[in-house]
Amino acid sequence: MTRKHFMLEDIAVSAPGALLLTFADGERFPVRLDEIIARHPTLHALSMPDVFATAAIGEWKDTVIWADDDNLELAADNLRALAVEQAGDCSHERVWNWMARNELTLDQAAQELGLSRRMLAYYKSGEKPVPRTVALAMKGWDALYAGKAKPRKGNNAMRGEVSSDTPMLMRNASAASASKKRA
Fold this sequence. Notes:
- By secondary structure, the protein is α+β, with helices and mostly antiparallel strands.
- It contains eight helices and six strands.
- The protein has helices spanning 34-39, 49-52, 76-86, 92-101, 106-113, 117-125, 132-144, 168-182, and strands spanning 8-15, 18-23, 28-32, 56-57, 63-66, 69-75.
- It has a three-stranded antiparallel β-sheet with strand order 1-2-3, covered by helices on one side.
- Helix 5 (106-113) crosses helix 6.
- It is elongated and about 55 Å long.
């Protein structure tokens, strides 16, 4: 079953290569598709304004289809993620990609980011918008472990336990956190 936040209520062609999408959860997003159309030869027909103007909601309300051609169809969840990224925010797909790139389970990723498993699942599914703090935490985590071995399950540094092999950034953060708790 498609989730409400990925079901389309309305679409409008706002310019050649651009749509305004309205989702069942009430959110509206403009999205530019020029780059995707240029990158994927199968979508080349969408570069023609008369074909792009045929944009319609797919049968199950979870796609946009052009010219009644199944080869010219894009999924609503991908369009929403693209629109969110184009607006400068972090999409649920970025969370998926970060976890996959770093080979982290939901439990491990939640622990590394200092989130509950449930909240990370909401962000990963797109059910809730990904806060900028989470996007920054993912970037910080990548920077912290760039070129280094990724933490193993049960990483003590992320729980505030510090040892001599804990990276300096984590030691300083843990010390600052501990002193705030004592104050």
